[in-house]
Design goal:
The chain has about 375 residues and is α/β, with parallel strands linked by helices. Helix content is about 45%, strand content about 15%. It contains 15 helices and nine strands. Strands 1, 2, 3, 4, 5, 6, 7, 8 and 9 form a nine-stranded mixed beta sheet that branches. Strand 1, helix 2 and strand 2 form a beta-alpha-beta unit. Helix 8 crosses helix 10 and helix 11 crosses helix 12. The protein is globular and about 70 Å long. The N terminus is likely disordered.
């Protein structure tokens, strides 16, 4: 019996260890609580799938944009990575950097995203290269306390002339009207983009994209630049805005040192994390203004600007990577992100119980929009 037991131990010691596949999912999430949530979801997945190891490397937004193309061509390419969709995604697909996954994705995962989600990551070649995760909107966040201090009625700023008059009131009261992180460029381009949405509208933008008329040198696009210049000449931004990053501007607004911040809905959490006390502006002092309308503008007042973000698969991604992303993007897991008000998940049913009033309002805005324009830099 001792010989049999010894033989069993020897056999056990030389038995092959279960092979493990490593999945690298590159993300840009910087809010600590959201990162903690992602890690907990990964731990839950790995407990159910001991043959898969999920790694969640991080790159800051600007570093991500700068390094991704090089990464995708290297041996260090992540299996899955964040995407804002749009033209950048289409160029990545065209360059052969991505893996088609339509034959691997379950029907449940496809249905979970809805038609718009699947379409967002389907290239002209007919292949699906990723999954949609969330919808977002760029909104005009405002500090109610500072509005009261300057004697500015939020309703008076719903058109361009009223908006400018409000800015003058803030300046007269010694309050910085608008926080802006122009160093990173994309926060500043939101102003021109929103003006284009108001002036050109969906039909005008799509006609320009097709190269009709003068394209993006057309009258409404030039006029948007003129309105942007008019605003800039009023000097509504904080001192040093050209050297300020998005995080700097977000923290400035979160610290109550600027009355407004034109930024995506993600700023609800980011401005807290970037603020000095990590608390940001209390909910009862925070509000969302509609971007001012412009007389004669061709855009519909309900038009919104934002994105439909998701996760793409690099050309060398494993089947295990698809399995992980399906799990991460399921309604059950995405509901946790909705509950934390980190973003508005696209997964069916995930956002139904969202209680955060700002995220609920933004979801309603997008749902009722005549046109939801994708981020222009994408």
């Amino acid at each position: 019996m001792r010989l049999i037991a010894l033989a069993a131990l020897v056999l056990a010691s030389i038995a092959p260890v279960q092979a493990q596949t490593v999945v690298k999912h590159l993300h840009i999430t910087s809010i600590p609580a959201e990162v903690e949530l992602m890690n907990s979801i990964a731990a839950e997945f790995m407990a159910q799938n001991p043959d898969i190891i999920v790694e969640l490397p991080f790159l800051e937004n600007e570093a991500f944009k700068a390094k991704l193309t090089t990464l995708l061509q290297s041996d260090e390419a992540p299996d899955a990575f964040h995407s804002w969709g749009g033209g950048v995604f289409l160029e990545q697909a065209k360059a052969g950097f991505l893996r088609p996954v339509e034959d691997i994705l379950s029907q449940e995962a496809k249905d979970n995203q809805g038609t718009a989600g699947v379409s967002a990551f389907t290239a002209p070649d007919g292949h699906i290269y990723g999954v949609a995760r969330d919808v977002s909107e760029v909104v005009l966040w405002y500090n109610k306390t500072l509005f009261e201090q300057a004697g500015v009625d939020p309703a008076s700023m719903e058109d361009w002339e009223g908006f400018k008059a409000g800015i003058e009131k803030f300046k007269a009261a010694g309050i910085t009207p608008i926080a802006l992180g122009a160093k990173d460029k994309w926060p500043a381009h939101f102003w021109w983009s929103k003006l284009v949405v108001r002036l050109a509208g969906k039909d005008g933008f799509e006609a320009a994209a097709r190269g009709e008329g003068d394209g993006f040198a057309g009258e409404d696009f030039v006029k948007a630049g003129a309105y942007f210049l008019e605003l800039a000449q009023m000097e509504p931004w904080q001192q040093g805005y050209l050297a300020a990053s998005y995080s700097d501007a977000s923290g400035l607004f979160g610290d109550g040192k600027a009355a407004m911040h034109l930024m995506g809905d993600w700023d609800y959490g980011a401005m807290k994390d970037n603020s000095a006390n990590k608390q940001g502006i209390p909910d009862d002092q925070l509000g969302i203004l509609p971007f001012p309308t412009i007389e004669g503008g061709k855009g519909d007042p309900t038009d919104t600007l934002g994105g439909l973000g998701g996760i793409l698969f690099s050309k060398n991604a494993s089947d295990a990577a698809v399995k992980w992303v399906e799990f991460f993007n399921s309604a059950e897991q995405q509901k946790k992100h909705a509950d934390g008000a980190y973003y508005i998940p696209i997964a069916k049913g995930a956002a139904d119980g969202m209680t955060n009033p700002f995220k609920a309002q933004i979801a309603k805005n997008i749902g009722g929009a005549h046109w939801h324009a994708n981020f222009f830099d994408q």
